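ok new one. same drill as before - structure tokens go in, u give me an amino acid for every spot. 185 of them this time. try not to just spam alanines like last time pls lmao
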């Protein structure tokens, strides 16, 4: 008997359940874009290096081109299409618009999903590679421009909108005054 190479899976995406047959080798990115027409998540490098395909899985950042669709069954998936509340933009989306945190826009969905994850990680007290004190008893460092740049470093922008992206993340996180000034300095 030949081994199974496909399965019928149910994905919980943006609050809706989607049942579809997939080859076991299908990435979550390809399932989203090619099978479910959720094309907001972009295919950049297809090697996990650019961040254009960043989504949230169970509230944490995930590179969808490196995750198999079958491994996402039973998880809560949020793509850029599920970030806004109807016609009301999420504060991160609004900050990107207000502060021109995009140019061509190709990386923007991944940048926004990553920013959502960054803000949650910081609020939970997770240190980054530039955090001065990474001991378990340390308080969360301020969300400085340096912290934001480090935490967002897995998301590339070919247009170079990094200064505005940092300012947008800072504003959305509620630290706009000092961090946004620091970002443009």
């Amino acid at each position: 008997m030949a081994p199974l190479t496909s399965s019928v899976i149910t994905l919980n995406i943006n609050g809706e359940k989607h049942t579809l047959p997939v080859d076991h080798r299908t990435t979550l990115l390809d399932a989203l874009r090619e099978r479910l027409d959720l094309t907001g998540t972009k295919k950049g490098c297809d090697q996990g290096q650019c961040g254009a395909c960043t989504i949230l899985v169970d509230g944490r950042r995930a590179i969808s081109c490196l995750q198999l669709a079958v491994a996402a069954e039973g998880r809560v998936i949020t793509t850029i299409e599920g970030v806004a509340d109807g016609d009301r933009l999420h504060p991160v989306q609004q900050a990107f618009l207000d502060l021109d945190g995009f140019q061509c826009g190709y990386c923007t969905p991944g940048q926004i999903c990553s920013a959502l994850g960054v803000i949650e990680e910081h609020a939970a007290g997770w240190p980054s590679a530039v955090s001065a004190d990474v001991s378990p008893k340390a308080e969360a460092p301020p969300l400085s421009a340096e912290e934001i740049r480090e935490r967002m470093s897995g998301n590339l922008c070919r247009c170079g909108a990094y200064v505005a992206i940092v300012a947008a993340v800072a504003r959305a996180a509620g630290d706009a005054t000092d961090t946004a000034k620091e970002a443009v300095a």
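Confidence is low (pLDDT under 50) at residues 176-181. and btw The first helix runs from residue 28 to 35.
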